[in-house]
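S2.1 Query sequence (PAAR domain-containing protein)
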Amino acid sequence: MAKRAIICVGDTTTHGGKVLEGAPTFTLNGRNVAGVGHQVLCPRCKGIFPILPDLLGRRYPHTIGERDTAVDGMRTACGAELIASQGTGTIDDVGAGERGDGGSPGGSAAAAAAAVAPSPTLCLECLKAAAKKAATMVARG
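Output structure tokens follow.
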């Protein structure tokens, strides 16, 4: 699996939007790190929408302040995809991550919690394909 860059306040979206919120106690390169539920402004959809949980199937959760850490490729409630503006702070989809030099000592974005068992009914490839297309239903095959 690939490493995915951590999303911070000020990062953009595919709809031309901007991440507005982040964890107040954790920064990366001087910017607050965003997580699930933090707000994103979307000019295309004319509103403010939360970051949704990761649908690409990370094997281990990575949290900051009890929120799943937002990473490149996650989506907002309006369907916009998050785009990271930095590459020094990453999270590996299989649980190992690394913090860039700009990370604050207040926490580690790479801290892996308990393992989440893979779904016995859906393969990772099907979940990734559905997430990439923002599908509301997963077709097998």
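The mean pLDDT is 76. The two ends are 21 Å apart (CA to CA).
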